[in-house]
Every structure is written in structure tokens, then in C-alpha cells.
């Protein structure tokens, strides 16, 4: 049996098979290291910075909240569009209530979502489109629906996603993030959900790559050993 012949042949064909994926690993890795995560996360595009709450202010008490939303399990006081609101949670649902008047604000209408988006957006572009989302697109697949999507007419094609129940910013998406997500799909070889870093395809590719590296190392060792022989 000519072992060096078969090792060379296996090394060549494995290289042809795994070479494309190895190139994708390197290209995606370069992109991920070249651009900081802060930029990918879009912190420079939208920033939530609420003013501090007043220590002494006229607000509804817990008993009054219970009348508005019977059976609520928790609440949080926060600012929303310049006024204090309660965020009430219970039964897997959340809603906003004006902290002074008791008016229920949820679900938020389009006008308030637009005002919220303009308030936290850090750019100067105008809003291009506002969409009510009932089926989450791939870029926000894990976010709860329904949601509002506010798209800005800037170079990055920025899209801000908001909860209609709490007004919270659910996600920032822009072109650099979308390229990151696209390359991440190739990097972890999860072409469906783009989240499983321990999938079978990746394990097989890593194993084949290891065989390629070991066969190459063996061939190098064999070549030097053969040259050393008289």
C-alpha cells in the first residue's frame, strides 16, 4: 500500500471541498474583527436616554392601578415622550398607563411611535416608512410580534423596531448589521435560523478541516524525513 500517495490524494480532494468554506470563515472573521460590536449594534444610530424621574410628583398609587388593570403582577415607573407612565405586566402582557391621569396608552398608535422614533434617532434623515409588523422578518426573527418598524431614509437604511405595548426599542437594524448577519450565517454554517453555533454541518466541516490539517502536517513531516534519508 502506497500510504504517501493516498494521503496526498486525500489531502488534495479534502482541500478542494473544505477550501471554499475556509475562505468564508476567514472573510467573515475579518469583517467581524474590523467593525466594532458597538457599530454593529447600532448604538450610534439610536440612543435611549430618559430624563430622571421627579421625586415628588402626583402619581397613581397601587390601589388605583389595580382598578385600571386588575391582576397585574408588576409595574415600573418610567418616562415616555416626556411624561411619566407606568408599565404594567401580568399574564404575559404589558401595557402603558399615564402615571397621573390613568389613561391607558397601549397599544401605541402610529403617531406616538413616530414621535418615539424621532426622539431617540441620532441621525438627521427623515422617516421613509412606518410599518405594522405581524410576521417578524429574518433580521428580528426572535422579537415578539406584533411590532412597529420605522425606517429612516439614511445611507445605512436604518430600521428601528418598537413594541406597541411598552414603546420599548426592540432592535436597531442597519446595513452593516445586515452584512454581519449574512456573514455570520456562513461563519457558523447555520443557513436557517443563523443562531446555532453547534450544528451538525459545522461539526462535520470542522472535523474535515482537522483531517486536512493533519494530513498536510503528515506530508510535510514525510517530505523532510524522505529528504534526510541518504
Description of the structure:
InterPro entries: PepSY-ass_TM. This is PepSY-associated transmembrane protein. Keywords: Membrane, Transmembrane, Transmembrane helix. The chain crosses the membrane at residues 12-32, 201-224. Pfam families: PepSY_TM. The protein has 230 residues and is an alpha+beta fold. It has two domains: 3-38 and 180-228, no CATH class; 43-173, no CATH class. The protein has helices at residues 3-34, 37-41, 62-68, 110-120, 175-188, 200-228; strands at residues 74-80, 83-90, 93-98, 127-133, 147-152, 159-162, 169-173. The chain has a four-stranded antiparallel β-sheet with strand order 4-5-6-7. Helix 1 (3-34) packs antiparallel against helix 5 and helix 1 (3-34) crosses helix 6 (200-228). The longest helix has 32 residues, at 3-34.
What is shown here, in short?
The chain has six helices and seven strands; from the N terminus they run H-H-H-E-E-E-H-E-E-E-E-H-H. With 230 residues, the chain is α+β, with helices and mostly antiparallel strands.
Spatial order of the strands forming the largest sheet: 4-5-6-7
- Beta content: 15-25%
Basic shape: elongated
Instruction: List unreliable stretches of 5+ residues.
Output: none
Q: What kind of sheet is the major sheet? A: 4 strands, antiparallel
Radius of gyration: 27 Å
* Mean of pLDDT: 89
Proportion in helices: 40-55%
- N-end to C-end Cα span: 23 Å
- Helix/strand-derived class? alpha+beta
Keywords: Membrane, Transmembrane, Transmembrane helix
Transmembrane segments: 12-32, 201-224
Pfam families: PepSY_TM
Organism: Roseateles saccharophilus (Pseudomonas saccharophila)
Amino acid at each position: 500500500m502506497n500510504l504517501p500517495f493516498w494521503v496526498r490524494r486525500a489531502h488534495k480532494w479534502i482541500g478542494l471541498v473544505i477550501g471554499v468554506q475556509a475562505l468564508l470563515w476567514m472573510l467573515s472573521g475579518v469583517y467581524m474583527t474590523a467593525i466594532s460590536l458597538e457599530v454593529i449594534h447600532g448604538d450610534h444610530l439610536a440612543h435611549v436616554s430618559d430624563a430622571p424621574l421627579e421625586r415628588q410628583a402626583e402619581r397613581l398609587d397601587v390601589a388605583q392601578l389595580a382598578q385600571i388593570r386588575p391582576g397585574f403582577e408588576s409595574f415600573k415607573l418610567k418616562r415616555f415622550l416626556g411624561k411619566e407612565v407606568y408599565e404594567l405586566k401580568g399574564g404575559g402582557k404589558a401595557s402603558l398607563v399615564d402615571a397621573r391621569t390613568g389613561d391607558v396608552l397601549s397599544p401605541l398608535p402610529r403617531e406616538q411611535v413616530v414621535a418615539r422614533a424621532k426622539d431617540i434617532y441620532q441621525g438627521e434623515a427623515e422617516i421613509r416608512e412606518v410599518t405594522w409588523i405581524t410576521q417578524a422578518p429574518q433580521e428580528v426573527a426572535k422579537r415578539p410580534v406584533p411590532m412597529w418598524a420605522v425606517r429612516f431614509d439614511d445611507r445605512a437604511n436604518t430600521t428601528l423596531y418598537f413594541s406597541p405595548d411598552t414603546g420599548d426599542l426592540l432592535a436597531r437594524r442597519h446595513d452593516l448589521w445586515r452584512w454581519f448577519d449574512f456573514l455570520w450565517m456562513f461563519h457558523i454554517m447555520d443557513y436557517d435560523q443563523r443562531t446555532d453555533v453547534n450544528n451538525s454541518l459545522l461539526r462535520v466541516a470542522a472535523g474535515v478541516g482537522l483531517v486536512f490539517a493533519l494530513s498536510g502536517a503528515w506530508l510535510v513531516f514525510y517530505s523532510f524525513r524522505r529528504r534526510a534519508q541518504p
